[in-house]
Design goal:
Elements: H1 3-13, E1 31-36, E2 41-46, H2 56-67, E3 75-80, H3 93-99
Parallel strand pairs: 2-3
Antiparallel strand pairs: 1-2
Protein name: DNA methyltransferase
GO molecular function: methyltransferase activity
Organism: Heyndrickxia ginsengihumi
Length: about 100
């Protein structure tokens, strides 16, 4: 995946807000990996802040919708993983400041 496409995908995913926390999934550190194959299939490997999150389906749908306008992306698969587990350490400085969490 070239750097420009990766930046475009991450930029689109910054529009996906975790409804329970109010911060986007990129700055929360929920997106672990991105990969696009030659057919334009995007695989998003991500986690959620809590196992059994009732809004998992909503977030997956929002991820697919967010990247739908990127021409290189023809189809999107969202893989929710629990390993490695998410911790506050994965959050960006912006997210920590917004939530009042010390660095």
């Amino acid at each position: 995946m070239d750097e420009t496409l990766k930046e475009n995908v991450l930029g689109a995913l910054e529009q996906v807000i975790d409804p329970e926390i109010g911060i986007d999934i990129v700055n929360l550190g929920l997106v672990y990996d991105l990969d696009v194959n030659e057919e334009g299939v995007l695989d998003v490997t991500m986690t959620l802040t809590a196992m059994g999150c009732p809004l998992a389906g909503v977030i997956v749908d929002q991820v697919k919708l967010a990247v739908a306008d990127i021409p290189e992306v023809k189809e999107t698969n969202v893989n929710i993983v629990w390993n490695p587990p998410w911790t506050k350490d994965r959050m960006s400085r912006y997210a920590k400041i917004a939530l009042g969490i010390p660095d």
